[in-house]
Amino acid sequence: MAADEQRNHPGDLEAAPRPSAFLVPHSRPPKRNRSCFCKCRRRTILSPIAFIVAVAATFGILYLTLCLIDPNDPKYSVNRLSMSAFSVDKDLNVKAAFNVTVTATNPNKRIGIYYVDGSEVNMLYAGTRLCSGEFPVFYQGHRITTVMALMLNGQVKVGSELLNALQEQQRTGMVPVSFEGRVPIKVKIGALKIWKVTARLNCDLVVNSLSVSNQISIKTSTCKFRLKL
Ligand SMILES: *[C@@H]1O[C@H](CO)[C@@H](O)[C@H](O)[C@H]1NC(C)=O
Asked: Which of 78, 82, 84, 153 to mutate to test the pocket of ligand 1 (most atoms within 8 A of CB)?
């Protein structure tokens, strides 16, 4: 019996590794499941971290790029104003022609500005457009100040209240007018020319009078600038 047992045992022992060898793969799936479970858990834990790292890196690069580019709004001012025509006929048609001297400054050291076709500038009195013109088409390089004379022409029919208000203000020597512009521009950063955006320019002026005779004196002038993407 003992010999048989001994005989059997080695046989069992020999046979045992085989099933166990076969069992090992069988015993692996739970391990795999476990490891997959761990991996999956790790993935779900890692992915928000990876996401945050990616977002932080993106913002970091953007921030550094912006620091390097250091963008500043261009500056505009209306320096001189004169009229070559200003008349009102009996039907209350106002004919006006302005010569507006505008100074445009590009303060950027890495951004160039292309002023492109399709601009419109207007001179308004009490919300009524008296005349309009265009911005010149040109490229303004880094840290350049450009002085330009814009010629505005127009004819508009107005109400008698508007003319009465204007006459009253002409007497006091304080006539508020606004000069506004919609100017399409293309921004150039290094060699990269970026898509067209519209620059909106709005200047509130108070002048002594609207008249053809002599140069109009500008009492106050404030210009605002914003970009419409
Ligand atoms: C417009 O005004 C500017 C500056 O005062 C002047 O140099 C220019 O000759 C004027 N242009 C016209 C057509 O009157």
From this structure: 82
pLDDT in tens, 174-210: 999 999 999 999 999 988 888 899 999 999 999 999 9
Report the nearest-CA residue for atom 12 of ligand 1.
99
Q: Which of 128, 199, 200 is nearest to 161 (CA)?
A: 128
DSSP state of 216: B
Residues 6+ apart with CB under 8 A from 56: none
Nearest to 105 by CA among 134, 148, 64: 148
Ligand 1 centroid to 4 CA: how many Å? 124
pLDDT digits (tens, 9 = 90+) for 46-64: 688 888 999 999 999 888 8
